[in-house]
Amino acid sequence: MVFEAFGDLPQVRDVAEPIPSPDGVVVAVEATGVCRSDWHAWRGHDPDVRLPHVPGHELAGTIVAVGERVRVRRVGERVTVPFVCACGACPQCASGNQQICDNQFQPGFSGWGSFAERVALDHADVNLVPLPDGLDSVTAAALGCRFGTAFRAVLRQGELSAGEWVAVHGCGGAGMSAVLLAVAAGARVVAVDLSAEVLAMAKQFGAEVTIQSDNPAEEIREITGGGAHLSLDCVGLPATCAASVASLRKRGRHVQVGLMPPEQGVPPIPMHRVIADELRILGSHGLQAHEYPAMLDFVTRSGLDLGRLVGRRISLDEAPAALAEMDRPVPARAGVTVVELPRP
């Protein structure tokens, strides 16, 4: 699925076969999620995107070719990958923070991505994550960005404790994942969205309170008896960021999950409150490959059914229209849309 101008509807057509770099692999894609980050790339909000371009970064599939310097990964392995692919050699990687690698490669952004039958991925031994036999490719496709991002945002950056109030602003893929994770961790969740269908799904996932509003801060503070301990902006708009910060109680934590391209404006953060109430403002940028075992272990121990996150399955030919649907401010459907491709 290729676009040659930002905002023009992408086309599904044949392109040259990818070849692996010396330390990379080629993966036959079996499933790839349709994410709002892909929408940002298509709309020209990411300076790393060069035209023509193939988007897509949430993927699962089977390795079909390996580079000469690859030592760990093998043809035939089923794998997924974080949306931030690390170099494995910079200071950030050496400290275990591959999610902010100084030399990161992002499929679907800095290179061609996974809305395709095959995708080339660099630094395979550092970045690829083998999939358990019991995890199907459609479900695994949601791990690399939205669920993985939510896992880090809620449990690592957000430092959630059982019994705390969590406000989730925007219950798309990342937000719904955050609801699922926070409930599993024993939190009390307030889900905020403009879509009644999305909020109904959040309620099914265990949200204690749902709010259909674009200005929910006062209501959240009242419901929670002073404000949320942890609040996440999973949309990435100035208004939702500001509402998330305004929803906090004293010493509360705001985690910014949704991307915020400068073209969409700068959020009005009340720094006087940040100081007076000792609020913490944090970013969260994906999840390192070495954290995947801990994430999968949490899923197993909590009994989470990740398949519940999948809203619909579509073909590659249907992907351009699915991407264009994200122009709407309110999601057209609840749950994650996943492109499913035939196995090689």
From TrEMBL:
Residues 7-339 form the Enoyl reductase (ER) domain. Keywords: Metal-binding, Oxidoreductase, Zinc. It comes from the Bacteria. One of its GO terms (molecular function) is oxidoreductase activity. The keyword Cell division does not apply. Gene3D superfamilies: Medium-chain alcohol dehydrogenases, catalytic domain. Pfam families: ADH_N, ADH_zinc_N. InterPro entries: ADH-like_C, ADH-like_N, ADH_Zn_CS, ER, GroES-like_sf, NAD(P)-bd_dom_sf, Zn_alcohol_dh. Its cofactor is Zn(2+). Belongs to the zinc-containing alcohol dehydrogenase family. This is Alcohol dehydrogenase. It comes from Amycolatopsis sacchari.
